[in-house]
Amino acid sequence: MTAQQSSSLRLDNVTVKFGGLTVLNRLSVEFGAAPISSLIGPNGAGKTTVFNVFSGLVKPTEGRVLFQGRDITGASPVSIARMGIIRKFQVPTVFPGLSVGDNLKVAARAPRQRHEPGDGDGWAIDDVTDLLQLSGKKQRPAAELSHGERQWLEIGMAFLGRPKFLLLDEPAAGLGPDESEHTARLIKEISAHCAAVVIEHDMSFIRSLGGHIIVLHQGAVLRQGTMEDIEDDAVVRDIYLGRNTHA
């Protein structure tokens, strides 16, 4: 498989309001040009709402959601996942009573988008357990895994859905330095096969991922570019980075 960089996932002038609160404010943002994109910003900036809109959990008050140029606004979460937009939530949702291997088998059998010519046959379970560095624990119940290992397992389960876009919500949350380093390597490996979009609070983790960074503030794009661009921007430092070292 190869990365499908011709794919694009876009919010076009999207506003989301909950009662009198505007969470996204005429937001236009596009993902897919870079293998890895990171979405950062202060608490309440609208990061999770962006993922909720992309995955069909929230319908925009105004604006459109476009996938490969197709308007998918209002599509159901199931249909969106079958298109190839697959989300991993912050808290791992593996099946604790099943083994690592059986969790991956369940994910591999889930309904997914129709293959396009040249997609190939996907990944074997053993290939994915090797990628996750969980081969030695393939027969162990997921309940016995550490928090980091559960994160990796769920990333592997999402990857077996053959995503075109993999949305990762705080994949480094609660991880130690070594686990974070492995998670970053894993995301980089996966990004050779699909576009990865990451929400994360840990700026050192974002730095290790590289790629394109988008800073949200009050539901709109404040700045975007490389980590160097973001760190050198005085407005970003004043509003966001200068307050602390975490998003």
CATH homologous superfamily label of the domain at 9-92 and 163-241: P-loop containing nucleotide triphosphate hydrolases
**CATH fold-level name of the domain at 9-92 and 163-241:** Rossmann fold
Into which percentage range does the β-strand content fall?
A: 15-25%
List low-confidence stretches.
1-6, 114-120
Estimated structural class = alpha/beta
Span between termini = 33 Å
Could you tell me the mean pLDDT? Answer: 88
Coarse shape: globular
Helix count equals 9
The counted number of beta strands is 10
Domain ABC transporter: 9-243
Protein name: ABC transporter ATP-binding protein
GO molecular function, one term: ATP binding
Pfam families: ABC_tran
Structure description:
With 247 residues, this protein is α/β, with parallel strands linked by helices. It has a domain at 9-92 and 163-241: Rossmann fold, CATH 3.40.50. Helix content is 32%, strand content 24%. The protein has helices at 47-54, 77-83, 100-109, 125-132, 147-159, 177-190, 203-209, 227-231, 234-241; strands at 9-18, 21-31, 36-40, 62-67, 70-71, 85-88, 165-169, 195-199, 212-217, 220-225. The strands form two sheets. It has a six-stranded mixed beta sheet, sandwiched between helices. It has a four-stranded antiparallel beta sheet with strand order 2-1-4-5, covered by helices on one side. Helix 3 (100-109) packs parallel to helix 5 (147-159), helix 4 (125-132) runs antiparallel to helix 5 (147-159) and helix 5 (147-159) packs parallel to helix 6 (177-190). The chain is globular, with a radius of gyration of 18 Å. The chain starts with 8 loop residues before the first strand and ends in a 6-residue tail after the last helix. Residues 1-6 and 114-120 have low confidence and may be disordered. GO terms for molecular function: ATP binding; ATP hydrolysis activity. Keywords: ATP-binding, Nucleotide-binding, Transport. This is ABC transporter ATP-binding protein. Residues 9-243 form the ABC transporter domain. Pfam families: ABC_tran.
